[in-house]
Amino acid sequence: MCSDERIVLLLIMRGFFKKTISFFISGFLLAALCAGCSLITSTFRGSDRETFEQIERSYRLGQYQRSLEQCAALIAQHPGGAFYDRGLFYAGLSLVQLGPAAENYSRALRYFQKLQQECPASTLTPESTAWVNLLYRSLQAEKELQAQQTRISQCRSASDEKDRRIARLAAENERLKKELELFKKADLQFQQQKKDMHNAGKP
User: Fold this and answer.
1) 102/115 Cα distance (integer angstroms)
2) Roughly what angle, to the nearest 10 degrees, separates helices 125-154 and 160-201?
3) What DSSP designation does 101 have?
4) Which of 43, 57, 63, 75 is the most buried (most CB within 10 A)?
5) Is 128 exposed, middle or buried (0-12, 13-18, 19+ CB in 10 A)?
6) CATH number where 103 lies
């Protein structure tokens, strides 16, 4: 083989090896990138789950303000995530437990309504609907009672009918408050049962 032919052959082989090496480097980088994406996704999910576990722990321990703050972080950091609906639900529960201030119940109502609107397929939606109905009725009764009391204070000569209406509204408000308390106690018992079942399942 003459020197010219050797040179041509060397050039061809060099081009082949460059393409082969480039192909393998590209494949390696693509695999590394996919692994990196998978790691990021796994980390995100782990963080999402870890935040929710902290929320549950705080709620079970009666640390409702802390639970509420953790819910706010989960909702803000992982919108639409796997635990988003549970963040909304526990935010509502924590505010109910922080009650009975009307402001807390109003905020709780908004969280439960948000869950209904944004997560209609969630398993927590039926329970949220029950809370929405109860809180809405309670807030309406409280609002009407306050309005009646304001009118009474402005006009001392209220009729007997108004007095009876106020008495009925006050009784209805007290009944709803008791119903709320029963809901709260039932929820705490449910959480304790979940904890007991979880502990019983541990080896």
Assistant:
1) 20
2) 150
3) S
4) 75
5) buried
6) 1.25.40.10
Q: What is the mean pLDDT of each run of 10 residues along the chain (203 residues)?
A: 47 43 36 33 56 94 96 92 95 92 91 96 95 93 86 74 84 88 87 81 63
Question: What pTM does this model have?
Answer: 0.63
Say if residues 91 and 74 touch (Cβ distance below 8 Å). no
- CA distances (Å), origin 77, targets 27, 50, 68, 83: 34, 13, 14, 11
For tokens 């050797």, what's the residue?
A: 6
Say which DSSP state 203 is in.
-
H or E element at residue 80: none
In the Cβ-directed half-sphere of 55, how many Cα atoms lie within 13 Å?
A: 26
Amino acid identity, position 105:
Y
Total count of domains within the chain: 1
What is the residue range of 81's domain? 44-186
pLDDT for 15: 47
Q: Is the CB of residue 119 less than 8 Å from the CB of residue 85?
A: yes
On whether the CB atoms of residues 60 and 191 are closer than 8 A, the answer is yes
